Amino acid sequence: MITDDTFPVEPWQVREKTLDLDILAQSESVFALSNGHIGMRGNLDEGEPHGLPGTYLNSFFEIRPLPYAEAGYGYPEEGQTLVDVTNGKILRLLVDDEPFDVRYGQLEHHERVLDFRAGTLRRDVRWRSPAGRRIALTTTRLVSLAHRGVAAIEYVVEAVDEFTRVTVQSELVANEDQPETSQDPRAAAILTKPLQPVSHDSDELRAVLIHETRYSELMTAAAMDHDIEVPGRVEKNTISREDLARTTVICGLQPGQKLRIVKYLSYGWSSLRSRPALADQVAGALDGARYTGWQGLLDAQRQYLDHFWDGADVEVEGDPEIQQAVRFGLFHVLQTSARAERRAIPGKGLTGTGYDGHAFWDTEGFVLPVLTYTQPNAAADALRWRASTLDLARQRARELDLEGAAFPWRTIRGQECSAYWPAGTAAWHVNADIAAAFERYRIVTGDESLEADCGLQVLIETARLWLSLGHHDRHGAWHLDGVTGPDEYTAVVRDNVFTNLMAAHNLRVAADACNRHSEASRALGVTTEEIAAWRDAADTVNVPFDQGLGVHQQCEGFTTFKEWEFTDETQFPLLLHESYVRLYPAQVIKQADLILAMHWRSHSFTAEQKARNVDYYEPRMVRDSSLSACTQAVLCAEVGHLELAHAYAYEAAAIDLRDLHHNTKDGLHMASLAGAWIALVAGFGGLRDDDGVPELDPQLPEEIVRLRFRLRWKGLRLIVDVTHDEVRYTVEYNGDDTVDDALTIRHAGADLTLTVGHTRAVPLQPRRALLPAPSQPPGCSPQRRRG
Amino acid sequence: MITDDTFPVEPWQVREKTLDLDILAQSESVFALSNGHIGMRGNLDEGEPHGLPGTYLNSFFEIRPLPYAEAGYGYPEEGQTLVDVTNGKILRLLVDDEPFDVRYGQLEHHERVLDFRAGTLRRDVRWRSPAGRRIALTTTRLVSLAHRGVAAIEYVVEAVDEFTRVTVQSELVANEDQPETSQDPRAAAILTKPLQPVSHDSDELRAVLIHETRYSELMTAAAMDHDIEVPGRVEKNTISREDLARTTVICGLQPGQKLRIVKYLSYGWSSLRSRPALADQVAGALDGARYTGWQGLLDAQRQYLDHFWDGADVEVEGDPEIQQAVRFGLFHVLQTSARAERRAIPGKGLTGTGYDGHAFWDTEGFVLPVLTYTQPNAAADALRWRASTLDLARQRARELDLEGAAFPWRTIRGQECSAYWPAGTAAWHVNADIAAAFERYRIVTGDESLEADCGLQVLIETARLWLSLGHHDRHGAWHLDGVTGPDEYTAVVRDNVFTNLMAAHNLRVAADACNRHSEASRALGVTTEEIAAWRDAADTVNVPFDQGLGVHQQCEGFTTFKEWEFTDETQFPLLLHESYVRLYPAQVIKQADLILAMHWRSHSFTAEQKARNVDYYEPRMVRDSSLSACTQAVLCAEVGHLELAHAYAYEAAAIDLRDLHHNTKDGLHMASLAGAWIALVAGFGGLRDDDGVPELDPQLPEEIVRLRFRLRWKGLRLIVDVTHDEVRYTVEYNGDDTVDDALTIRHAGADLTLTVGHTRAVPLQPRRALLPAPSQPPGCSPQRRRG
Questions:
Q1: Residue A617 located in a structural domain
Q2: Which residues of B are less than 8 Å from A406 in CB distance?
């Protein structure tokens, strides 16, 4: 179990003081390195022991059949699963004749540090072999943010007390054995030996292995090269086999002498390119890396991150745990997206095989809002990836007898891979979430080119989907029936408020976009009649409201469903202990749904409705999804429950550093890590953008004495610096001083014009809660930050 | 394709005039013989060609894993599949040195006759071998209704033109090769080589094979013996192997000389008994059969059937096709239930592997109403089987965190085997259907012993299930949410009218039964408070009604769902061409649901409501289920659309004789065959029993000039003889003259007292339709019987 002692609270790093094999799999996820193209779990250099060995390439997957005991029309028959590719992380060490293995001999010191500013994973070890030889080992690993196909490891071993013969085996290993997965349906299916050898080659200190998947027919190449420094004689050789390449380095070290190896790695994959082209690609990347050199890679990494933190950092005074966790989250969000470049951003990034490595609505719903404000080019890349799957989404819509495009609930490449339609295909809202992400990108960045290039088509086709899904009843209300909203414990319902409001937004945004691009939209067959039908549906959308209780209904009838009977024996997550047939018709909610609607479609609710809805829904939400705490933080903050919001913000931020959902071993929860930023910036900062302007309304919980964050907005940078008394807004140019030098924001509901280079301090609008702080279901209250 | 020419219209038999190999699999189902314990498809004696070789023993199944690409709590992990047991039907014939095979040589004559009164399948063949030898072959097969473990075949081969050497190989064959099944989800998974050899033995003309299933660990024994008559020298021997026993008979026949073999077969299986016990059991049955002799078996068969027809026959003048079909249906319903004796009655009887051989609500809902009025001891046996699975149903309820007992949606042995919960577990109505069948049995037969023995527990536990499933809203209405009614195209809904009314009935019946058995119910923990809660829920059950349209809503909101857009390209059944995610939220109905509620809970609707509901729902029902036409016949008759009712009655009756659902090859549709009786007796006879008395209100469509049927009611027999002008009611004792000699029925809504031995003629109440005859979805109109 990860405890408060596991990782000391430090602002810019995660440090593990000793090695705890019981949480090895969790720490492998926490210490994962990635650049969005290559992902490496924080496995030990020597390969074992391990929780889950993992090296991944974005969108490199294998196909597996999806079995159904009772099949149905339109069920996807093929799934996609992220594949553990050739492992280049391995450097085995023999001390005299004994292998270095943390399970044997004596581990005198073992520390690992994930450094958010250096972008490295450092490891310091002092080990005494069973025969009594002591060595000091320092390794530093990086996956380059500047060089997309490159990773590198600096490996330094030192003899401590006496002359020691040291042998290092640096390897590429394909088709590693994988541990068996759990029965938990959320843990991914793991494939055994997915890589078929294509070719292998070695030469002095260099080797390349090329493999291909059996069914998806993707080819991958992994290559390594080495720089070796050592005083005295050294023997070196490299061999290669189908699934193994090994460079062996042997030398003798006097006490204090060091063997230093820099291992350069390069990776590539392709579905199209030939074996020689791929071999040349990784060879070229490897040459480039050696040319740059270890220090050059380190410098470029730090430079990349300096730039990122300059624009993205969130400073939290008064709660050092959240300070650490939000930076940890931002670091991983950056790692998962920085060089994804028109590939998916999976729910777990490239940190594990959880959810089969699939991307969900998490991307557009939680990760992209953060990137749009902090790393907009990465947001654009992710949206271009979505748009690149539009034809597949069109085919899926045709298969389901629908117009437009139906994007997949879960996928790697773009094909629908969800085998359970009530919580997959029926969750149509993913389409509106994608549309909203395009629109947010346009509004926040001011960049119209994405819409022109590909966004318009996505908006039109998703609008068409909604129109063919919905219908008017005989009284003129427009309904969406048989849909599943974000809450996966209440599925296949009528008029889910979240879905209906998001669909209406999708329809309106598409209509406006067609007016902006009238020629292009005409070329796509859009007529004024079609646009009018979209607007009409949006205007007449049914939003269920319980007049008696004065609250919205998450879906039609929700407030009259059976209440869930929580007992002291209730076990969470409910989905592992209760059947869907019981959960669906009850007033028990897995994750923010109506609450999320009040965040994303903030202007569709009055302040009183928000307060009453939070009061009604909080006691019914069990947070069995990691996509809930951050949103609950945002709404609790808005309606004045600041301490509760603080607790939720911590829960979102600490999800993986404290393994709160007990599945960090399968990979990190990217949406929740992004959610830490959302909880702070949209929660305590009050950021909203659904009215087309940046709205802020900060208010801090007692313990947080200062919150400072940066937002990009149309070429400007807005710095928001909040204390308990006031907020100081500063606007700066963001590299481009040709843009307008004034920015009108909305502060606490009132327009406020800011000019570049100036700071304005304004008092906070005091937040008074309309209702007392709500309770949660038994066992579901978040851990309070005070008292 | 089965055409009108395939089986000539004859009142007491189904005769196939020539052999059409294209419909071999269908004819194997039509010509299946069974006694409810043993089932034999109508495979050719020589084993091939075949569509689907099949020999079954009731509840002899194998377990198979149920795979889920995305698992969920409470999903059954093991399925049960009916197993093709040792085939004893095979008698291969060599004519000189050429095997008799209908695909070679010249088939000069081939006729098969299923005789409803003899209870036999007869086959007459004249064949000329490729070498020119002509033989005449006559075989008669029976599965004994009088001797549960016994089947027999009389096999007579005659030389026609010249001296012929004849070799007959009479076999027992285990683990026959099975054809691959189709992709249609409704076709059963077929297991390969499910039988593991345990022992085999042979002796002169006799052999026994004993096998065991791998996972379900059921043991089965099959044995054969022979009587052989032939002029002149004959050689005989019998061998046995693990999966084969063969008796070979060789003789020479002069023209006109015959070889006659009577093959006696006996079968048994057990999960408990030892191999020797089982071997002795089949040996004893075989000895008994030989002692009875072929003629004795034939006589007993006819006697059994004479008795059955005397109490069950339905005479239809004016529509000879329906006349034939309803007798065909009654014959198969009898076959499937006669000697089931506390085993399940599967949806396809023992006529094929469709639906894996599972029993559904079809049994209690469609088959038992017929048996209760015609063969009540078989109905009681079936209900005792259900009650025997009560502990499994209790366990299932516990697993789902519910009180009481949850009977399985589909099963062989009693465990839930449904792998798709929205159309399985959520179809809770099966529990109320079972409760209603117990209550109908009690009311119709007057036999209180079944309730005392086991029915009371079933009623109590199902009532408890309903109470824990439902809840009151804050206005006091009692709801059942997240349920699936009979219509599998509209699933997981709120307040399905059928389910709600049936649940209310279940609750009331349980309350009344507890009052009748107050001591026993107290022993089961029932208190007056619990009974009061049952009555309260029943009294406050919500029944959605659309005031604007003046019709009931099949479920909450149904009449405001999207209308299905039928086009000329719409393909049926919809489930093979459209996704559930589209079907569920649309006003498209697979099968009678609200319409069925109006039949089974007839007194919960006014005449006008029935008329308006039929008018509203008819154009939305596509009849993709075989459980629909009979109910539509009943309600169309009730509201005055007699010609439409006639068309539906024919469709229900002819489902297998005309292969209307294109899957008769997988087995017969027992519920629809029972439905032919229901369509005639409840439709044109107007029989209702949901008010506790026999209600009749006959009215005939134009073409049917006379309808005569018999009903058992509390020890009496009521004969109903309807013409277009009047109905003649006759009451007789039914074997027991100690019962009351008066019977008060309700005729056309008014009480009418009848006395034993007298016939009363009363005029019909003329039926006037309130509304014009409704339309059906394009392509879904039943074939009209006139014009």
A1: yes
A2: none
Please give the C-alpha separations between residue B740 and each of B133, B696, B711, B744, in angstroms, as whole numbers.
67, 20, 16, 11
B478 with B515, same domain: the answer is yes
N- to C-terminal Cα distance for chain B?
Answer: 24
Per CB-CB distance under 8 Å, the chain B contacts of A398 are none
Domain boundary among A243, A277, A311: A277
Contact B579 A68 (CB under 8 A): no
B288: which strand partners? none
In chain B, which residue's Cα lies nearest the Cα of A469? B582
Radius of gyration of chain A (CA): 27
What percentage of chain B reaches a pLDDT higher than 90?
94
pLDDT classification of A179: cutoffs 50, 70, 90:
confident
Interface contacts A/B by beta carbons within 8 Å:
143
The residues that bridge with A129 in the sheet, in sequence order, are none
Domain containing A241: what range?
13-277
pLDDT at B184: 42
Given an 8 Å threshold on Cβ–Cβ distance, is A400 in contact with B68?
Answer: no
Q: CATH number for the domain including A350?
A: 1.50.10.10
Q: What is the CATH number of the domain that holds A173?
A: 2.70.98.40
Say what the pTM is.
0.95
ipTM over 0.90: yes
**Residues B150-161, mean pLDDT to the nearest whole number:** 97
A109 domain residue, yes or no: yes
Looking at the fold, whether B261 and B378 belong to one and the same domain comes out as: no
Kindly report, residue by residue over B690-713, the tens digit of the pLDDT.
Answer: 999 999 999 999 999 999 999 999
Q: For the residues of A94-112, what is the DSSP string, one character each?
A: EETTEE--TTSSEEEEEEE
User: Contact B597/B604 with Cβ under 8 angstroms?
Assistant: yes
Pick from A277, A294, A317: which residue ends a domain? Answer: A277
Confidence of residue B181 (pLDDT cuts 50, 70, 90): low
Q: Tell me, yes or no, if B488 is annotated catalytic.
A: yes
Are A606 and A494 within one domain?
A: yes
B551 and B517 in a common domain: yes
Residues A548 and A517 placed together within one structural domain of the fold: yes
Tell me the C-alpha distance between A148 and A35, whole Å: 7
> Of B62, B171, B212, B488, which one is the catalytic site residue?
B488
Pairing of strands A91-95, B726-733: unpaired
Residues of chain B neighbouring A467 (CB-CB closer than 8 A): none
Q: Strands B695-696, B742-747: parallel, antiparallel or unpaired by DSSP? A: parallel
State the binding site of A: 361-362, 590-591
Distance between A569 CA and the closest CA of chain B, angstroms: 12
Report how many domains make up chain A: 3
B334 inside domain: yes
| Any domain includes B216 | yes
Distance, CA of B670 to CA of B627 (rounded, Å): 10
Is B487 found in the same domain as B425?
yes
- Do the Cβ atoms of B73 and A482 come within 8 Å? no
Test A71 with B185 for CB contact under 8 angstroms.
Answer: yes
Instruction: Point out the catalytic residue in the list A364, A461, A488, A651.
Output: A488
Which pLDDT tens digit goes with each residue over A324-382?
A: 999 999 999 999 999 999 999 999 999 999 999 999 999 999 999 999 999 999 999 99
- Please report where in the chains the tokens 């994930």 appear, as a residue: A114
Q: What chain B residue is nearest to A586 in terms of C-alpha separation?
A: B481
B46 and B32 co-located in one domain: yes
**Overall average pLDDT of the A267-271 stretch:** 96
Neighbouring residues of A641: CB distance < 8 A, sequence distance ≥ 6 = A614, A769, A773, A774
Residues A611, A676 within the same domain = yes
At B598, which helix (H) or strand (E)? helix B594-600
Q: Do B474 and A560 touch (CB under 8 A)?
A: yes
Q: What angle do CA B298, B302, B305 make, to 5 degrees?
A: 140
Nearest neighbour of B580 by CB, restricted to A72, A562, A576: A72
